[in-house]
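re: that chain from earlier
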Amino acid sequence: MAGTVSDREKTARRLLTSSAEKFYDPEVDIDWDAPWVDGLRFLPDHRVTLFGTETWARLTPEQRLELGKHEAVSMVSYGIYAEAALMHILLRLVTEGDPATPRTRYTLTEIGDECRHSTMFARFIEKTGIRAYRQPRLAARAMKFISLLPIGPASYGLALLIEEILDRGQREVMIDEDVQPHMRMLTRIHVLEEARHITFARSELVASAERLNRLELTINRFVLAIAANLVAVMLIHPGVYKAVGIRPRDGRKLALDNEHYRKTLAFMAEKLIAFFEESGMLKGRVIRALWHRSKLLPKDAR
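^ sequence. v structure.
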């Protein structure tokens, strides 16, 4: 009926209100001048990629802390590049849509959030004294391709891949008192604001999927499954292992062969996988095989 506000517009209005009421400014809400706390970690030990391996058992406590510090820097470096790719998608939503609608206004709000998150991540990296980990060449090329994708389930699915993988891990970090206060506050800010972004992307993915025919939906599923295989590659840069005297290629192989790390990846993707199952984005034998290969979908998931 004319004049009826769609559920998606209602969702956008609600998220706009929440964004106005609950937000942080990381430049002032994190005490960047405060020193690190001696002995506290940057990631929980059991989320460091080599945890549970014989190599981990041989590392000194200082080396374990240093590896976790470098992996934290790698994750937030990934966050900067991934959110830049996400903003490409969001900017296209603005230019291709009606700028006066609540959905477009919320999209602009989300872009502002992502800019603050990226500057927050950059500030954290600067404080550690570690150089940011640049994305691998293959991933950089894939990022360029993302901006060419038609707006639809794959693009919203990519947004969720970027947001929900980090979100699940950060929810654990932000309440761990053995983690540095700077890292805990960084993750708290990111989790609060990403929760709105996730709600928006899920709503848009479902709505956009309903408008596609079977072939178009299959193509979107395939693109999303390919993208999932970049997550494990991009999240932890192999250069982190040099910090503890391990060759990058050896460290990456150890991590990807590590059953405990595979469980960590599955843990970080668990809620995302459940949503993709429910929304039909994991249908098809080849699609599921690609998701298994990404290590985000556990081997025993059928």
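The two ends are 42 Å apart (CA to CA).
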